[in-house]
Amino acid sequence: MPVLLRSDSELAAPIRCVLSDVDGVMTDGKIIYDSSGAESKQFNVRDGLGIKRWIGAGLEFGIVTARSSEAVRRRGEELTIGHIFQGVKNKLECVQSLAKSIGCELNEVCYIGDDLPDLLPMRSVGLAVAPADAARDVRDAANWILSKNGGDGAVRELLERLLRAKSLWNVGSNA
């Protein structure tokens, strides 16, 4: 049976909410501890602009991560991300609950993840996305596999692709 390929605009049309893992998606997946035990993460500034543009277009963006980090809280606050869930044990339940709370059906949600804990939410949303360097099983489950690695602009690539497909990418605006 032939696989029916859908265009970016067809896949993007219903998407109103993007949910992202952090380690391996918004970062390169490395966890760094300094000599006092404090954790640090490195975020890509271009991802930040993509998130600001997505939110600025009146769409929802959220973080769903199994780990907890002050760096994630701070980055989310800087970007005015309204939905930040850290220390999540069951990502699927979190995604389902968030979608319901904001009035979205799961087919209106895009989830970007890079490793095995992301598979269940990816399999239940309208658009599943993986960075180029995601685990094999995650790439196999994705509708889109990005050209960028996690922490190297993968979130920006995703959001720009969605906004362009929705004709909402305006290069002349500031945010």
Tags for this model:
Rossmann fold; single chain; globular; alpha/beta; 8 strands; 175 residues; six-stranded parallel beta sheet; 7 helices
What is the N-to-C order of secondary-structure elements (H for helix, E for strand)? HEEEHEHEHEHEHEH
* Fraction in beta strands: 5-15%
Shape: globular
Cα end-to-end separation: 44 Å
In total, the number of domains comes to 1
Low-confidence stretches: none
Q: What is the CATH third-level topology name? A: Rossmann fold
The CATH H-level superfamily is HAD superfamily/HAD-like
Count the DSSP helices.
Answer: 7
Radius of gyration: 15 Å
Question: How are the secondary structure elements laid out?
Answer:
Layout (H helix, E strand, L loop, with lengths): L7 H5 L4 E4 L11 E2 L5 E2 L4 H12 L3 E5 L5 H9 L4 E3 L5 H11 L7 E4 L6 H6 L2 E4 L5 H6 L2 E2 L8 H12 L10
Helix pairs in contact: 2-7
Structure explained in plain terms:
By secondary structure, the chain is of the alpha/beta class. It has a single domain (8-119, 150-165), classed as Rossmann fold, CATH 3.40.50.1000. It is 35% helix and 15% strand. It is built from 7 helices and 8 strands; from the N terminus they run αβββαβαβαβαβαβα. Strands 5-4-1-6-7-8 form a 6-stranded parallel sheet, with helices on both faces. Helix 2 (45-56) runs parallel beside helix 7 (154-165). The protein is globular. 36% of the residues are buried.
In short:
With 175 residues, this protein is of the alpha/beta class. The protein is 35% helix and 15% strand. A hairpin with a 5-residue loop joins strand 2 (32-33) and strand 3 (39-40).
